[in-house]
């Protein structure tokens, strides 16, 4: 056993697992990278354990990969050869719900779904929500500044975070378990750790702000014939009912074609339309809310902004509408290997982005099946490209096509999934040299030996 | 002339003012500190000018104080002897309003009121608002993470900031004029500059996200008999109408007594009450909104949560209600010298805070006139203490009393005004050693020679 492993075992005993005692699940995350066994797996039970582990690793210059729910798509939690994995899976639990402050304090390894349920039981709503809610952890959500379907209303993980406890690379514990909306006492150092994907420190405890539960949520599918019309629907809805929109998802024509012709869902409308919107809004008390919602959509129809619309009359309708949006989770059953992109494009360039794909994808990759969809109110689209017998050259080609376009349009190569290992080669498409130099300086200051998630982000 | 002044004049010519050519307004800010003439005043007209100025000052180890609208209360922009002042007053102008993205791009020296008007002219609302709107600048608002009356709904300046351009201590320009709600491409370095009060870099250009304008704002004054009841009103209002509250200001009994008996306003209610709340909510279309608002307040009255209430029926009513909240701007005319505190207290400790003041202020400072009021939904209260013939010892005593209490209750010594020079000695009341060490590391990394706003914050 190497010196560092001996020191870890001596200090942390059975919290350190080696060799065959390391479960396969800790060899990989959801990125699809080939599994790699870490040198050791540390399963701390407290912040003090995390501090001990990092102090030892820091002394020995030992690289550490931090693991939460292992649901990340960018390879941030995927071990590299020789790394020690530090999994927060045993640091779970809601420590406090303070109804006066409308805050929830939890250990970082707590699954998001547990946090959501605890908030709901206390009469509140957790503003962070995403598909992986059952497995992902609240610490991982914050470390990656997770997005999701309701960012439009509640913001990214950053906006929901009031306080943090984190362990620095050398084992120092910094703690600001702030429950107050306003705190301008010095630099808000917690901002450094939000979205830095475990490269600047390990988040061990979080305070999130809770929201009032929405009342009477209304759901509709709307057909529109251009992105400009979709944007007009978004802005006019917001003008008529400020702050009520929860969800504004766009699914372009190609997406709906795959949903119906390949995944087997019934067509949403009699005719095909360029874009289908999934809209949810918190319209208040059921009967008046439902009427106001339908009236507004009727107005949009009469103004020619929407070509067709269906409003959910039941839970079953709502599920049926969401089923379109959720077809990408099923693509594995129907389509060949995919590359999935999570990018942002400024809204005034969105039409150009889709037009470019419509021109270039069939020309350069005639056999590809590709779709565009996403949280457009947040500028965020997902692009999935499935190609039979995908080679690594094809993959690179598609990546260059998409990231090149994003870069030209002033977009971001990562909207909500982060950079991790997979997007690292493309970071300079969204960031300038002075920005990258500034990031490197921050990394060097906080992790001078480069032991935390090396090779991720930067 | 010293070498550094010579170099500045050589590079920037008439943008550098010396001696008697420096206007008196640049000798101080709104902190009340004694005016001090800076060595020179630089009035850059572009980001490149700022970069040139900082590069020269950095080379010479020359300290620089950055000035915006000079409305800060913590002394952050107040020159110290030997400093060069860098005022952004000539860098004004709205550069773009993008209605598709709902964003506004402006030079940092643009007054907030100009930004607000431009947003309004384009059919949107700027989420940043505070009393000094006519003089303060959007760059200063972001550099100090300004708060205000509508933080409850729109958040602090941080939440409204999407992109920044800043000049580092050595003159490097970093630029991320991001217009997208989601951008997880690497560290969000802009977060470093928000709220760091000019000590890490100079903000030169900003992108802010705009909001839909509220519809049919309703205003009421409500009397409640305890802070617990006030909190219940807040939470039940939010549960009934999530996301509609804009303003939730509390004025404790002592505040209303000063407003009526000293400042001469008519009593708001027939009887005295422990707390008066000023509530505003965006209730939608006028007739139904006004009815829903009144009905909810009636419900609260019947539940015994509020003891009395008046709803504004006109613009004049609304102004009359706000006049109570704005009496502190008039205290100078009626009261002896004041110390003004801007602190946060966790909501579940707020009653303790006020009870402590009610016990200790009359005991320790029997001749003082003191009031508590503020943005309580954000945990933020202001405490003003006026004492005749205030000595510096008395001042220190009162500061220790208030900051000691805030520290014991886990609050923050600065909610929204920042630390500047005035609160610097008290920062350790709200921050631990590891936090202060981390802040110092960030400062050291970004400004190794310590030339930017030295002696402020840290």
UniProtKB/TrEMBL annotation, chains A, B:
Organism: Microvirga vignae
Necessary cofactors: FAD
GO BP, one annotated term: respiratory electron transport chain
PROSITE patterns (UniProt xref): FAD_PCMH
Name this protein carries in UniProt: FAD-binding PCMH-type domain-containing protein
Family: Belongs to the FAD-binding oxidoreductase/transferase type 4 family.
InterPro entries assigned: FAD-bd_oxidored_4_C (IPR004113), FAD-bd_PCMH (IPR016166), FAD-bd_PCMH-like_sf (IPR036318), FAD-bd_PCMH_sub1 (IPR016167), FAD-bd_PCMH_sub2 (IPR016169), FAD-linked_Oxase-like_C (IPR016164), FAD-oxidored/transferase_4 (IPR051264), Oxid_FAD_bind_N (IPR006094)
Domain of life: Bacteria
Stretches assigned to the FAD-binding PCMH-type domain: 33-213
One GO MF term attached to the UniProt entry: oxidoreductase activity
Keywords on record: FAD, Flavoprotein, Oxidoreductase
PANTHER family hit by this protein: D-2-HYDROXYGLUTARATE DEHYDROGENASE, MITOCHONDRIAL
């Amino acid at each position: 056993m190497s010196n560092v492993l001996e020191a870890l075992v001596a200090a942390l005993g059975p919290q350190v697992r080696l060799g065959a005692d390391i479960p396969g699940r800790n060899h990989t995350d959801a990125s699809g990278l080939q599994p790699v066994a870490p040198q050791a797996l540390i399963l701390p039970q407290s912040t003090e354990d995390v501090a001990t582990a990092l102090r030892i690793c820091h002394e020995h210059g030992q690289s550490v990969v931090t693991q939460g729910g292992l649901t990340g798509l960018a390879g941030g939690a995927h071990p590299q050869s020789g790394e020690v994995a530090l999994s927060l899976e045993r640091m779970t639990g809601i420590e406090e719900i303070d109804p006066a402050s409308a805050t929830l304090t939890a250990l970082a390894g707590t699954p998001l779904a547990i946090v959501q349920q605890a908030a709901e039981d206390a009469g509140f709503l957790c503003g962070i929500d995403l598909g992986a809610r059952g497995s992902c952890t609240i610490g991982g959500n914050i470390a990656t500044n997770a997005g999701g379907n309701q960012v439009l209303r509640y913001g990214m993980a950053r906006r929901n975070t009031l306080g943090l406890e984190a362990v620095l690379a050398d084992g120092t514990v910094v703690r600001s378990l702030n429950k107050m909306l306003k705190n301008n006492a010095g630099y808000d150092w917690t901002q450094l750790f939000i979205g830095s994907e475990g490269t600047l420190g390990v988040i061990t405890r979080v305070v999130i702000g809770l929201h009032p539960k929405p009342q009477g949520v209304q759901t509709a599918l709307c057909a529109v014939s251009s992105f400009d019309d979709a944007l007009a629907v978004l802005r006019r809805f917001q003008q008529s009912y400020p702050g009520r929109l929860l969800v504004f998802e766009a699914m372009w024509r190609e997406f709906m074609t795959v949903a119906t012709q390949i995944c087997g869902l019934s067509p949403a409308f009699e005719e095909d339309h360029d874009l289908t919107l999934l809209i949810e809004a918190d319209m208040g008390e059921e009967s008046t809310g439902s009427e106001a919602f339908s009236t507004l959509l009727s107005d949009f129809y009469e103004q020619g902004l929407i070509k067709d619309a269906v409003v959910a009359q039941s839970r079953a309708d709502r599920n049926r509408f969401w089923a379109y949006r959720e077809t990408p989770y099923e693509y594995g059953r129907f389509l060949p290997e995919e590359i999935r992109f999570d990018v942002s494009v400024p809204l005034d360039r969105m039409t150009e982005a889709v037009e470019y794909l419509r021109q270039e994808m069939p020309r350069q990759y005639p056999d590809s099946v590709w779709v565009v969809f996403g949280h457009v109110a947040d500028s965020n689209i997902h692009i999935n490209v499935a190609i039979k017998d995908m080679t690594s050259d094809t993959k690179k080609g598609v990546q260059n096509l998409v990231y090149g376009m994003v870069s030209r349009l002033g977009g971001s190569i990562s909207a909500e999934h982060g950079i991790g290992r997979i997007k690292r080669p493309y970071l300079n498409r969204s960031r300038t040299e002075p920005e990258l130099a500034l990031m490197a300086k921050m990394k060097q200051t906080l992790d001078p030996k480069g032991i935390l998630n090396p090779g991720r982000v930067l």
